[in-house]
Design brief:
13 helices; ABC_transptr_periplasmic_BD; 11 strands; six-stranded mixed β-sheet; Iron complex transport system substrate-binding protein; ABC_Transporter_SBP; alpha/beta; single chain
């Protein structure tokens, strides 16, 4: 009986030590969630916030979703986190608490997807490797990057050399939170802009980093190509329908000639695991004849 009691006590002590040593991570951003899913690290996650789409009842039932917006400090504290991982923009006093606030509470903070940096593939790789370090998935991450780089290079080899003449004018817009609000990014603040630098195109933009643009502004640009994305607003199919049915926007050259496409928001802006697929989409969009010939 005594031996059994000692054994039970030892098991309880071991369980307590294990539970204290196991990471309890709250993640911020769709990209972070996709990384956790892909690299099978969900067991370390105790909270999720700030997703590309508003969470509807019945969705993500097996995930600890705190909110689709910025989680409150109180909701994060309730998860008893050891670590916070995600978008740099989350860690503000008026959002989910500053980095200094959490560090004073003994909670480690790792910031990624920082829009103070140009959004290039190299920066995305850096963010992904940081994920690997935090979630102890370094080997898996390196293998993934190596494999995807091989695929990407094959696509890059298909891009034709730039020809003399007028470059095709491309406008990238993100529909954000409201059905009629569209943001225009500078080329260095979205991964799709960085990728389009490989193509013979002119990336149309505003003078400021990211601003909402009016229909009048879109008309003044009258782009040859339009790329659309959505953050917590219209579905991608609804976006296409909106442009094709709008009495003014449907007059744009890009819409009239069906040179309009939609892309995933996270992949297109800060970068995500589907970057090879995004590059393939762009290649097929800008050079449809070439991609048809290679099929």
């Amino acid at each position: 009986m005594l031996k059994r009691g000692v054994l039970v006590l030892c098991l309880i002590c071991f369980q307590n030590i294990y539970s204290q040593s196991k990471e309890r991570i709250v993640i911020f951003g769709q990209q972070a969630m996709e990384m956790v899913k892909h690299f099978d690290a969900k067991d370390q996650v105790v909270g999720v916030g700030y997703l590309d789409k508003k969470v509807k009842k019945g969705e993500y039932t097996d995930w600890p979703i705190l909110t689709s917006l910025w989680p409150s400090i109180e909701s994060i504290i309730a998860t008893r986190p050891t670590h916070l991982f995600g978008m740099e923009s989350a860690f503000k006093a008026k959002r989910s608490g500053s980095k200094e606030f959490w560090q004073k509470k003994g909670v480690e903070v790792t910031e990624v997807f920082d829009f103070n940096e140009a959004r290039t593939l190299e920066v995305f790789y850096k963010d992904l490797r940081t994920f690997g370090q935090v979630f102890k998935k370094e080997k898996e991450v390196e293998a993934f990057i190596k494999e995807e780089q091989v695929k990407l290079q094959k696509l890059k080899n298909e891009v034709p050399l730039a020809k003399k003449g007028k470059a095709r004018r491309v406008l990238f817009l993100a529909n954000v939170r409201s059905s009629d609000i569209y943001y225009c990014y500078t080329q260095d603040k979205c991964l799709v802009g960085s990728m389009l630098a490989d193509f013979n195109v002119e990336f149309l933009t505003s003078k400021n980093m990211v601003i909402p643009v009016s229909i009048e502004y879109m008309v003044s640009l009258n782009p040859d190509y339009i790329i659309l994305s959505s953050f917590q607003a219209n579905s991608l199919s609804d976006l296409l329908h909106y442009f094709k049915e709008h009495k003014v926007l449907r007059q744009l050259d890009a819409v009239q000639h069906n040179r309009i496409m939609t892309v995933d928001y996270s992949n297109a802006v800060s970068g995500g695991l589907e970057f090879v697929s995004l590059y393939q989409q762009l290649l097929s969009f800008i050079y449809p004849k070439i991609t048809n010939e290679t099929k």
